[in-house]
Amino acid sequence: MKMPRTLIAASLLLGCALPAFSADKVILTIKGAGCCQGKNEQSFTLKDLAALPQSEIITQTPWTKAKSRYQGVSLAMLLKKLQITSSSVKIRALNDYWAQVPVAEIDKYKAILATHADGKALTIRNKGPVWLMLPLSEHPEINKEQYHSYMVWQVHSVEAG
Ligand SMILES: Nc1nc2c(c(=O)[nH]1)N[C@H]1C(S)=C(S)[C@@H](COP(=O)(O)O)O[C@H]1N2
Ligand SMILES: [Mo]
Description:
With 161 residues, this protein is α+β, with helices and mostly antiparallel strands. The chain has helices spanning 5-17, 46-50, 75-81, 103-108, 145-148; strands at residues 26-31, 41-45, 55-61, 64-74, 88-93, 98-102, 112-117, 120-121, 131-133, 155-160. Helices cover 22% and strands 35% of the residues. The protein is globular. The relative contact order is 0.20. Keywords: Signal.
């Protein structure tokens, strides 16, 4: 069937109105020697992440005024599931930013890879699609520079070591 030109134009326009990533696009890759059933890495779409058990952190951050309810997978759970046993992980952003985060802190404070804030998927503009979230409001002792530096936004990969 030949598609009318106006219909093509309309779908292109609609395409532009959609978010910069869809539920089926890879947004996160976990890497590590021996990780992921011997594949050394595993990639996740937003849909894949949403299908895993979800955790929540309700907190304020230095970059957001009001408290929000952040939802996503527990990073400790994901590392365990993928057999990553290193004592730290390198969390890389879409830009050149990265942070080396001790797994002990990830475990202790139940860090999450937030994909939603107040029920809405995080967009790149709003520090998504993935933002490493820590419970700053619940634990004022970690509301400081060192821990802020762990809170990588626009995360695109997590590497063992
Ligand atoms: N993607 C990304 N996440 C990031 C950063 C960054 O530059 N890019 N800076 C980190 C550091 S070192 C800290 S202290 C805070 C800095 O936030 P600010 O630049 O708003 O002060 O966010 C952290 N998360
Ligand atoms: Mo920082």
